[in-house]
Design brief:
By secondary structure, this protein is mainly alpha-helical. It folds into three domains: 111 residues, no CATH class; 196 residues, no CATH class; 165 residues, no CATH class. It is 70% helix and 4% strand. It contains 17 helices and eight strands. Strands 1-2 form a two-stranded antiparallel ribbon. Strands 3-8 form a two-stranded antiparallel sheet. It has a two-stranded antiparallel sheet with strand order 4-5.
Length: 516
């Protein structure tokens, strides 16, 4: 009897989910049929697999936390292999995963079901950061439609760089229980750090691009730019840096007691994250790595001084000390190796002052483009074409600093926003990041126990790790980095006490008052 009831429940429960399953599968069948008619059976099989997986995620009971952890660990490989078409992709793994999560959460919200974090779904919690970033995303979409030279490219850029990271932050903040799933996220971060080091070290040693994205070059100007499973070397470096920050704080954040084998695995992953961050040879990333380690070590000592007994003090400070020792050894080893191998592999980018002069000239050009289009910018995705039109193909020569010319990329997140979205976008961008920083700072100052203090410290260190390289790199231009950063900060912020939020009540299921 019970078996029959369960069988009936599987096929008859949740009519909304059944409808969604039917629509997704029929769409997949239609798209696969089109590809079969053209003879592209490989793409047809890929579309059928994606549609089946998305439909099952919509229909079957599942945990949002499990999906997010699996996505986090598999995102680099999935982003390379799950995309259709291969170039100028419309369907990607990131878009599918978060679209399905949004649909499932909306269905749960409509029926007032509890979320996977155990909270009531009667209202949505929106932070001030999400409001500011949402306005920035709306501006980016409007710019893509009205001002972009290539509307399709700019629209994909707006969705992947602005909209999807915001969705990842909101879902992680409201549906990810760090106390229950934190240890699993910790293991996923260890696996990801080790995988990135293996791929990056292989590319650095051999010059072979294991995951060749169109337009991505591993050798530029005679130098090897390690990018691993990502499209750019900056994404590889900063994501490894984010993993280092999270891994350094995780044992104290989750009260982990590691045995000898676990400590070896943890130390290996921590060292892998450090080495991976340094392989692309960005000076700003190295500076951010040292700054984040110093901040987390200082915050760990503060926690020990205020809240811990002598016995717990050794347990809590050990990860920070171990991380510092590993960091120092690896920095010395990498510096010596790069110095000896520089003429054949690394080139002179680290020691040549012309790279700094080129940055100054590039920033000067970006500021001029901003001043030429002060309100709404040159248009999302238009910077390279606008730069060429106003410099290389115009009477005005390119900006130079000590005979070093500017390049057609702003090499700064803030200047990229200001030049393509104008001062309007720049103010929204600064406001959003200010709200994000204040969210972590308030949690750090108001923390009532050790876990909250360490979580807030890790949150702030992640912001430093994202922002310091972003001062000299347009790292925020890439969706993979933004998704990783927003997901980690969203997951951490969900455990903050007393966060300022704007509630959005669910009135669809309200019962009208029919009394006299």
């Amino acid at each position: 009897m019970n078996r029959q009831a369960r069988s009936q429940t599987f096929f008859t429960a949740a009519p909304g989910r059944l409808t969604a399953l039917f629509l997704v599968l029929m769409t997949g069948v239609a798209a696969s049929a089109v590809q079969c008619q053209s003879g592209d059976y490989k793409s047809a099989l890929a579309i059928a697999g994606i549609a089946s997986a998305a439909g099952l995620l919509l229909y079957l009971p599942f945990s949002t936390q499990r999906v997010l952890i699996c996505w986090f660990a598999a995102a680099p490989l999935a982003a390379f292999y799950v995309r259709f078409p291969t170039n100028r992709s419309i369907v990607t793994s990131d878009r599918v995963v978060f679209a399905v999560l949004v649909l499932v959460l909306l269905l749960s919200w409509e029926r007032n079901e509890p979320t996977s974090a155990g909270e009531s779904a009667t209202s949505l919690r929106i932070s001030k950061f999400e409001v500011a970033w949402g306005l920035l995303a709306a501006l980016a979409l409007a710019s893509a439609i009205t001002r972009a030279g290539n509307i399709a490219y700019a629209a994909r850029l707006a969705v992947d760089v602005f909209v999807l990271p915001l969705v990842a932050f909101h879902i992680a903040r409201n549906s990810f229980d760090l106390r229950r799933a934190g240890k699993h996220l910790f293991m996923a971060a260890i696996a990801l750090a080790l995988f990135l080091l293996v791929t990056g070290a292989f590319e650095f040693a051999t010059g072979i691009d294991l995951f060749a994205f169109k337009g991505a070059e591993i050798v530029r100007e005679g130098e090897r730019r390690v990018n691993g499973p990502f499209a750019t070397d900056s994404s590889f470096a900063v994501i490894c840096l984010l993993l280092f920050v999270f891994l350094q704080a995780a044992p104290r954040m989750f009260h982990l007691r590691l045995d000898r084998g676990a400590r070896f695995l943890y130390a290996s992953a921590l060292g892998a994250a450090v080495l991976g961050a340094l392989l692309p040879l960005f000076r700003a990333v190295g500076l951010a790595l040292v700054a984040c380690w110093m901040f987390l070590s200082w915050s760990a000592r503060e926690v020990n001084r205020e809240t811990l007994h002598r016995r717990d003090r050794r347990l809590a400070i050990a990860p920070g000390v171990a991380g510092g020792a590993i960091l120092a050894v690896i920095l010395i080893a990498v510096a010596g190796w790069v110095t000896s191998m520089a003429p054949s592999i690394a080139g002179s980018r680290l020691t040549d002052p012309r790279t700094a002069f080129g940055r100054l000239a590039t920033w000067q050009a970006a500021i001029e483009i901003t001043l030429d289009n002060p309100v709404f910018g040159a248009g999302l995705g238009n910077y390279p074409n606008y730069f060429d039109a106003t410099h290389y193909y115009a009477d005005e020569p390119p900006e130079e600093v000590l005979a070093t010319r500017a390049v057609d990329s702003p090499h700064s997140n803030a200047l990229w926003i200001s030049s393509e979205l104008g001062l309007t976008g720049f103010l929204l961008y600064i406001a959003a990041n200010a709200y994000l920083f204040l969210m972590g700072w308030r949690a750090f100052k108001k923390a009532s126990d050790r876990r909250q203090r360490v979580t807030a410290s890790c949150f702030l260190a992640l912001i430093f790790a994202y922002w310091i390289p972003g001062l000299t790199l347009s790292s925020g231009y890439y969706s993979d980095l933004n998704l990783c950063f927003f997901f980690l900060t969203g997951a951490l912020s969900g455990s903050f006490a007393g966060s300022r939020e704007i509630p959005i009540p669910n009135t669809s299921s309200a019962v009208p008052d029919c009394g006299n």
